[in-house]
Amino acid sequence: MTMVSMDKTRTSIKLKEEDRIVIEEGRRVIRLEAAALEELRSGLDENFAEAVRCVASCEGKLVFSGMGKAGVIAQKVAATFSSLGKSSFFMHPGEASHGDLGMLGGVDLVIFFSNSGETPEITAILPPIKRIGVRIVSITATMESTLGRKSDIVLVIGKLMEACSLGLAPTTSTTTMLALGDALAMGYLKKNKDFTERTFALYHPGGSLGRRFMAVSEVMRTGDNIVTAQKTDKIQDVLLKMTTARVGSAVICNEENHVIGLFSDGDLRRALKKGGHILTDEIELFMSKHPKVVHSSDGVEKSVEIMKGYKIGEIPVVKENNVLIGLLCLKDVV
Fold first, then answer.
1. Which of 40, 79, 310, 316 is in the most buried spot, having the most CB atoms within 10 Å?
2. What is the pTM of this model?
């Protein structure tokens, strides 16, 4: 028993030592990359400002390119620019030399990512790109490389020591490329005064980001997908409409279609608690009067906050004078 306990203790100590080693390695990598980023930040100069101006003034497409890990970074930055409304795409340098250069037009801008600046697949397509008349921005280690010399604007990341313990795997270099690509994108955004949260939502219709900035009018239910009733309608008739439409509430309106009440599942439960034959009663007796409403131009995010705050699953959407035009359902946007 004693020997087993000692073996377990040794194993535990050994595992902790292994953990300590990998934790220290992780810290070393982050320290090296953070130092490279700080050096990159302090070294930004007029070349960066010129690159941002070049991007902002580009009348055509932004074409990002790179090989290997640098190519992956190029794809990510292209996606970032696309999300900001700037027409952007990735061009594989190997495929470019076999016909994909036909994607390019004279008003486009090519942005290359290459640490060495001597990537054969990239240097091979520089002359034809120049002949097409496309300007080139490069993110590379030095201006003296082939890519640096052939570029109109060079953003230098410097000759960096990779964080890889073997000094081989692209780590520090790709981190700085990514940061510089993001900086370019945010510099462009800073100059683009017309780009707003609503514009961002236009290019992100899916997911939580899209819903966050959507207008209520874009997601509200209308027509046969909502149930309306008048205050004199019988509860049983309104319930039948609600069941058919698969909604949890009915909006009570007057003759001018002004919202005067809301009858929900919660109102039905409260009515049932009172007992009696309520199904033939008029809806006015049990509806919630003066319900909360939102306007079609309101943001979905703000409207959802109101619904959650008041613990309601559906809310009428109105225009001027409280006229009903739709219904916003929480389950449709969350």
1. 316
2. 0.71
